[in-house]
């Protein structure tokens, strides 16, 4: 859904249709979020049995039940980030994605996992709690950057990018036109750029 949604949003932005891009972004949100809820419901219903797949030890089964609840909640939270990532990627705004992931996962998540897991004494559950806090920060930042999107401005930027304003793009077009002119004039020489 992320790649398809991002492509469709980008297509509308490049066509100069910001409202259609925004509506598609909302559709991507409903699809990703809805799918995550559909996945999480059976996961939560089976949380007390998941540990039995790995062990018959009661402590492992109990630990997996508590971790599964946290992981299921995290899955839904991260679905919101994936929606934001699809939208920001379509807008060619990768810096907010990188910033959100770096701050949430590395600046907050890793130290949080250590702090909750070891000094706080929560063990494996604490590691999951710390990482979940990091993912919440990642999601909040990603959704914030998406919410603050200026769709009209992003559409104008996408239209400009699609025109090929880069000097290298003009060089390729000019070389192709020169090659065609040479062929049309009866010259069979190929003009190639120096690298």
UniProtKB/TrEMBL annotation:
Keywords: Cell membrane, Membrane, Transmembrane, Transmembrane helix, Transport. The chain crosses the membrane at residues 27-44, 64-83, 95-116, 122-147. The keyword Cell membrane applies. GO terms for molecular function: antiporter activity; xenobiotic transmembrane transporter activity. It is found in: Cell membrane. It is a multi-pass membrane protein. GO terms for cellular component: plasma membrane. Signal peptide: none annotated. The keyword Zinc does not apply. InterPro entries: MATE_fam, Membrane_Transporter-Flippase. Pfam families: MatE. Belongs to the multi antimicrobial extrusion (MATE) (TC 2.A.66.1) family. This is Polysaccharide biosynthesis protein C-terminal domain-containing protein.
């Amino acid at each position: 859904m992320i790649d398809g949604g991002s492509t469709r949003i980008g297509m509308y932005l490049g066509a100069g249709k910001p409202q259609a891009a925004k509506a598609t972004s909302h559709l991507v949100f409903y699809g990703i979020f809805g799918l995550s809820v559909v996945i999480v419901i059976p996961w939560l219903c089976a949380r007390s049995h998941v540990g039995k797949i790995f062990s018959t030890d009661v402590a492992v089964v109990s630990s997996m039940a508590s971790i599964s609840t946290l992981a299921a909640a995290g899955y839904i939270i991260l679905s919101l980030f994936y929606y934001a990532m699809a939208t920001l990627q379509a807008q060619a705004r990768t810096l907010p994605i990188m910033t959100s992931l770096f701050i949430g996962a590395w600046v907050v998540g890793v130290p949080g996992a250590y702090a909750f897991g070891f000094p706080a004494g929560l063990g494996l559950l604490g590691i999951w709690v710390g990482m979940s806090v990091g993912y919440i920060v990642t999601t909040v930042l990603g959704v914030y950057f998406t919410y603050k999107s200026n769709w009209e401005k992003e559409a104008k930027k996408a239209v400009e990018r699609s025109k090929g304003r880069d000097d290298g793009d003009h060089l390729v077009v000019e070389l192709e036109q020169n090659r065609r002119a040479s062929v049309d004039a009866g010259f069979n020489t190929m003009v190639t750029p120096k690298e």
